[in-house]
Design goal:
By secondary structure, the chain is of the alpha/beta class. Strands 3-2-1-7-19 form a 5-stranded parallel sheet, covered by helices on one side. β13 and β14 form a beta hairpin. α1 packs parallel to α9. It is globular and about 65 Å long. It starts with a strand and ends in a 9-residue tail after the last helix.
């Protein structure tokens, strides 16, 4: 009897999981990858897309060529965990024996009043596209969020449009996960580009004409870009899977849902500490998590016990436009090694090589064989 493996979501984790499952599940398994688009989106380049650049077009069919994975282009709208069925918008419902849940995340536009009505996200290509369309007519932009995405977005916009007034607002320190040397370089780079940084400033409300800060001050802006926090789709929670307060699936060491072991969760939708600390999601973790998740699905298809996922961090790579950047080398738990920092053009080249290398690996049918 054919063992049906369905993978929901074709981001970094989902695509890696589908290819690994196809390679490891055996001849009696069928792997189906479901995604709302027929393109792979390089999420780590969406700030470049928003600034007017055109990253490579990556059809999923080409990335899946030679793998045996069936692609279904449709949006997942519901999950019946009891019947082991996925409801789709635009295609017939799909039954599964093993499900890999990899739907990823979007910007948390419900974090403060007015954000959903007035702020733009950067986590999906459609959202980044809205900013791209509006950018030529804007005189000022406020980027909310001082993590790596916020830093990269502010820098990219400022470099692409030197006449644009860019404000970066963060509730805590800028680049909090970086070491002191790396943070100093980020501050210098943003200052050189004319980006005004507002640290330790909380946003109370987003309005059509800018921000109201928690201390009562207004920060005018023609557009607000929200990069502070993320949210996941409610499908897992609605289906009765055990989730945390953010709706992320609670998994065991092998990435199986604690409440439903026939479901494997990978990427932003899974709660899995890395070396004892809460995971910082990135393609650096998403890809290996996807590979381990795909291997777990393959093991379940063969009636075997999946092996635990062993994940670690190596660095935090931050682009500061196209000619500058920071590579903060880290311990396995993502804590920074203070003096192990690369900056400037060399760091920009390393970041670009990492991003290109990830896509190069994804193009290979046997990407799932290496290293995990």
């Amino acid at each position: 009897m054919t063992h049906r493996i369905v993978v929901l979501g074709a981001g970094y984790a989902g695509l890696a999981a589908a290819k690994r499952a196809a390679r490891t599940a055996g001849p009696d398994a069928r792997v189906t990858l479901v995604n709302a688009s027929d393109r792979f989106v390089e999420r780590v380049r969406l700030h470049q897309f928003a600034a007017g650049q055109d990253p490579a077009d990556l059809p999923l069919a080409g990335l899946l060529d030679g793998t045996g994975v069936e692609l279904v282009v449709a949006r997942a709208t519901g999950l019946d965990a009891g019947a082991r069925t996925v409801r789709l918008d635009g295609a017939a419902d799909l039954g599964y024996d093993t499900l890999v849940y990899a739907l990823g995340s979007t910007a948390d536009l419900d974090a403060v009043p007015g954000a959903r009505e007035h702020a733009l996200g950067i986590a999906r290509k459609a959202d980044a596209g809205l900013l791209r369309e509006r950018l030529p007519e804007l005189g000022s932009v406020a980027v909310v969020g001082g993590g790596l995405t916020g830093i990269e977005t502010a820098a990219e916009l400022a470099e692409a449009r030197p006449e644009l007034r860019v404000e970066l607002v963060t509730a805590g320190p800028l680049g909090e996960g970086l070491g002191p040397r790396a943070r100093r370089h980020v501050h210098r780079a943003l200052a050189r580009m004319g980006v005004a940084v507002h640290e330790d400033e909380r946003v109370a409300t987003v309005a059509a004409d800018g921000l109201l800060l928690a201390d009562g001050r207004d920060l005018p802006a023609d557009a607000v870009v929200w990069t502070a926090g993320f949210r996941v789709a409610p499908l897992a929670a609605d289906a009765g899977l055990e989730v945390d307060e953010r709706g992320r699936v609670r998994v065991d060491g092998a990435l199986r849902a604690r409440s439903h072991p026939e479901v494997v969760a990978v990427g932003d939708v899974a709660v899995l500490p890395v070396r004892g600390r809460a995971a910082r999601m990135s393609c650096q973790i998403g890809v290996p998590m996807g590979l381990y998740g795909g291997a777990a699905a393959g093991a379940l298809a063969r009636g075997r016990e999946p092996r635990p996922a062993k994940l670690r961090y190596m660095s935090q790579c931050v682009s500061l436009g196209r000619r500058d950047g920071v590579v903060q080398f880290t311990r396995a738990d993502d804590t920074p090694i203070e003096r192990a920092v690369l900056t400037g053009r060399s760091a920009a080249r390393v970041k670009e090589a990492v991003v290109r290398g990830t896509v190069f690996a994804m193009r290979r049918p046997n990407v799932a064989a290496a290293g995990y």
